[in-house]
Amino acid sequence: MRQRSSTLCALAILLAAGILATSAAYGDDNGENGKAEMAAAAKVTIDQAVKTASEKVPGKIIEAELETKHNKLVWEIEVVTAEKKVMEVHIDADTGAVIDVEEEKATKKKERKRTREHKD
Asked: What CATH number does the domain located at 42-119 have?
């Protein structure tokens, strides 16, 4: 019984170590390792992405974020237009091409507000 318990404990430790090693190697979407790896993989810089977004949608840039969408590295640039609409310009981080432009969804705005309130 004692040997069985020791074996189970050792297996649990090995499993936990494996999970930690895997997450450290790949990083998570919110972790610094993941962000650094994504930035290193992007051929288009943030400055280039912001310039492209500004040419596509005139206004004030309020946010730029590198994300993975549909297994593709994408710059998401948020622009506030003269009409006070928040537009998202998605730019391929590999080619610099504009993928699409869409108005930011109201639910996303509410999520951000809740997140900011939660942090404060």
From this structure: 3.10.450.40
